[in-house]
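Notebook entry, structure prediction.
Reason for the run: the old model in the group folder had no record of what sequence produced it. Starting over properly, with the input documented here first.
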Amino acid sequence: MVEKKASKPAAKASVVKDAKKSKAKAEVKSAEPVKKTDAKVEKKTEVKATPGKKNYIQKVKKANVKKSTEALEAQKMLKSKKKHPTFRGRFGKRNIRRKSKAKWNKWRKSHGIDLDRGLQHGYRPKVGYGNPAEIKGVHASGYREVRVENVADLEKINPKTEAARIGAAVGKKKRNDIVTIANEKNIRILN
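New structure, fully documented this time:
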């Protein structure tokens, strides 16, 4: 006959776990309640200016600048300009070069002597598709964009017709300086 072995090691393990839990509970109950001192409360409310923390520099908000009449006129001209077809190049018939893929939905100049330059490959850029000189390079807000990297660049901006776009490599501290001075001079910031 096969004798059944009792599960003594499992029983011992459960007893040991219960003993550890009860000791931990007893230690928690016996510990004295921690008193908060005034010094600890003050340390929590202080904000230290260290470069590694997120609260180092708070973001300055852009002011709502009223649009100038020149910018409003340019914006009206932008809305009334004619629409252009999408210039795709010579890739129309190939299945691999679909319009849905962004890579193939751009204009590329055709190279080579054996190319078929038929209308089925789409429109090509021509002189007649150009925009008027007053609208070229104008942002949708009606202002011309001027890239700003520091405070000195703001002095070159005409607030009636130009708006500032802060460079991507500019840090928070310098960005805040640029925004505060732009708010004082009523210069619109696009980003």
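Summary: The two ends are 86 Å apart (CA to CA).
The old model has been moved to the deprecated folder.
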